[in-house]
Structures are given as C-alpha cells and as structure tokens.
Task: inverse folding
C-alpha cells in the first residue's frame, strides 16, 4: 500500500492486487452499499473503528487507487482488500481453467474476475434469503426495500447491515418488503440467533455446516453466504438455476441440485470461483436446451 495525499479528512492510497485483477469484472452488482459507474466503484464498509466511505478506480498499470474517508485508514484498507479479494492468488485456478473445456473460454475472457465480497455476513444472509427461488432482479428489489429503513445513511449510500440492524427487523416488515412468510421468519430467526460475523473467524467448511444446520437455509443459500459473506471461493450456490441449465445441457436431461453439486465438486477449493464463471457460460442461459432436456427425460 502506498499512501498519497490527505485533504479534508480524505486519504488517497494505492493498492496492488495479487495476480491479474479487473475491477470492472469484479465489482459486483450495485446495491444500497455500493455502485459502479464509469469505471469508479463507490462503496461503504464497516470497520472496528467506524464506517469507511471509499471510492476506488483502476489505473492502466493494474494498480487500484482509492480515496477514503475513514476514522482508521489502515482498518479501511484491510476491509477494502478483503472486500475486493485483492490478496487472493488465483493463479492455480487460472491453470485449472486453461485445461478445462467448460471453463477455458469463459475464464479467458475475464481472467481478472474475482467476485467482490459484501461488507458484512449479515448482508450476505439478507441476499441469500431474498434470492431464494426468484429472479435476481426481483431479489434485489426486495433487498433494497427491506434494508432501506434499517441501514444508516453514509453519504449517498447506506452502511451495510450488521447484526443489530437485523435484530430490529420484524417478520411483518420483511413480508411487506416482499418476502414470503416462511422466508421472512427464516431471516428474522437466523439474524437474531446466529452470530453471523463470527463465522468469518472459523474455517469456511465449518461455517457452511453451521449454516446448513439452520432450517430454511439450504445449499444455495449457504453457498451465497460463503462466497459473498465469508469470502470463500471453495463454496458455490449449489442448485442455482443457471448451473441447472448448464448441467441439463451437458447431461441431456433435466438436471437437479445434486448434479450442480457434483459439477462444482470437481473444481475442489475453487468451486465457488468456478461457479461464478460457469454462470456466465452460454449454456447457463440457454432456456431452450434446459426445456429440451426436461422433455427428453419425460419421454
């Protein structure tokens, strides 16, 4: 890290990612806590010292520049490096992908893609529950409606939800935001009873096992929380519709959750990162192939 100038409470730093890295391909979907416009990522991250408001862009030499307003710049830098996965050495994954017929072409187009992590595990829980069995677009609308009243403003964005914010949620509010009664009950119960942020301090496999022990959180939800909350690239969203379409095309029948788990298992510790690329594969968006496989199996 190189620290640049400080002015009016704002510090500019330069950060060097490990290996190939593309901010544009890694920034993630916009939400209440972050937005990506014109090559610039604005985001809010919590630290032990307080909230950090950060603006990040990538220079032509691959280095990242960041301007941050934070009570503790060092803590903000650590949070940013984790949030953008800047310290992940995914060279072994790139070698694996180069030899894999499924991954080869999609990874070649975006070798610097490392999906960003959310600011808190609590936010990842919200995203996982909101995204169960519905389209990504509708899930983001529900997430926004659910979090807007409980997350404090931070400039033009909102602070990522923390345990105290989820503790204030009621099932009635979650239902008004668009969750079904069952999913609303899951969110409220897990948010109040599970020490979510502590899950980052234990091995990812143990954290995933703990999540799967919660009624209402299945393999897909645990994969979302592991990837976007815990920062694990070993665990993917098993059962994701895109992965089911992909597997259906490959297997020439209608695939199921177990088929997607078997697909990701072959990538070992990189299963989650592989999933993020495989969901960009053309076959993961081929509705016709998915339905052809379903009809073939029915016949």
Result:
């Amino acid at each position: 890290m190189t620290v640049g100038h400080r002015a009016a409470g704002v510090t500019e730093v330069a950060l060097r990612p490990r290996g190939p890295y593309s901010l544009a391909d890694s920034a993630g979907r916009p939400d209440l806590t972050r937005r990506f416009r014109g090559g610039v990522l604005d985001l809010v991250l919590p630290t032990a010292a307080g909230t950090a408001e950060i603006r990040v862009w990538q220079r032509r030499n691959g280095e990242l520049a960041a301007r941050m307003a934070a009570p503790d710049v060092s803590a903000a830098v650590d949070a940013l490096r984790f949030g953008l996965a800047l310290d992940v050495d995914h060279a072994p994954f790139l070698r694996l992908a180069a030899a894999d017929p499924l991954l080869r072409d999609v990874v070649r187009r975006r070798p610097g893609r490392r999906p960003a992590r959310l600011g808190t595990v609590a936010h990842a829980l919200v995203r996982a529950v909101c995204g169960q069995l519905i389209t990504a677009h509708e899930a983001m609308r529900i997430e926004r409606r659910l979090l807007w009243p409980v997350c404090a403003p931070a400039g033009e964005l909102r602070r990522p939800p923390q345990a105290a914010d989820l503790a204030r949620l009621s099932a009635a509010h979650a239902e008004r935001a668009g969750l079904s009664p069952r999913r609303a009950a899951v969110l409220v119960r897990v948010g109040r009873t599970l020490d979510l942020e502590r899950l980052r301090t234990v091995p990812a496999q143990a954290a995933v096992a703990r999540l799967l022990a919660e009624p209402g959180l299945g393999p897909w939800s645990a994969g979302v929380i592991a990837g976007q909350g815990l920062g694990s690239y070993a665990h993917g969203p098993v059962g994701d519709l895109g992965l089911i379409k992909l597997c259906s095309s490959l297997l020439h029948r209608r695939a199921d959750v177990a088929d997607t788990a078997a697909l990701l298992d072959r990538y070992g510790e990189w299963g989650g990162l592989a999933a993020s690329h495989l969901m960009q594969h053309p076959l993961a968006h081929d509705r016709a192939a998915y339905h052809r496989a379903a009809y073939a199996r029915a016949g």
The longest helix spans residues 181-193.
